[in-house]
Design goal:
Rna Polymerase Sigma Factor, Chain: A; Arc Repressor Mutant, subunit A; 8 helices; globular
């Protein structure tokens, strides 16, 4: 297997065979991230494809300051945010001052398979899904999210609270279905 540095150098020279090898090596690792921000599998595939176009276009600027996979993940996240940015402005977002949502306990997600959790995340409205991913999974702060999405910090907090409430409701619903199947 070719080392990443050699593969990157060949890809930067527009070597199509090397680009295909790079895609084959990393697409499966990046696809779950794209899917978390997407509403559907097709949306996730679009995000990943667009991200790889940006990766290939910007390979010459990769300096090696971060791990290559980390650099590519950042591109996928930015691509997903840009992909969803148009949708964010089409859906109503509530500011924290306008509503109060309380989630009284932490969400327990360990009982669910990744695909089940992914399906729950994909059911969320775009704003909730994006903020949930950035805050709960990527570890961004609300101030960073607000700057990245061009929303207020309060809106970021309320979208996260709404996402947690939606996730909690979906988990409770799934648990009821499981319990009724077990007892029935």
């Amino acid at each position: 297997m070719i080392q990443d540095q050699d593969l990157i150098a060949r890809c930067a020279k527009d070597d199509l065979k090397a680009q295909r090898e790079l895609y084959d090596r990393y697409a499966a690792k990046l696809m779950p991230m794209a899917l978390r921000y997407a509403k559907s599998r097709e949306d996730g595939e679009d995000i990943l494809q667009e991200a790889f176009i940006k990766i290939f276009k910007n390979l010459k600027s990769f300096r090696g300051d971060a791990q290559f996979l980390t650099w590519m993940k950042r591109i996928v996240i930015n691509t997903a945010i840009n992909h969803n940015r148009k949708k964010l402005y089409q859906e109503p977002m509530m500011d924290i001052e306008q509503t109060t949502l309380y989630v009284d306990q932490d969400l327990i997600l360990s009982n669910f398979h990744f695909t089940e959790l992914l399906a729950m995340i994909q059911k969320m409205p775009t704003g909730c899904r994006t903020v949930f991913n950035l805050f709960a999974i990527e570890g961004y702060g609300h101030k960073e999210i607000a700057e990245e999405l061009e929303i207020s910090e309060g809106t970021s907090k309320s979208q996260y609270a709404r996402a947690r409430a939606l996730m909690k409701a979906m988990i409770e619903e799934a648990n009821q279905v499981i319990n009724s199947n077990v007892s029935g």
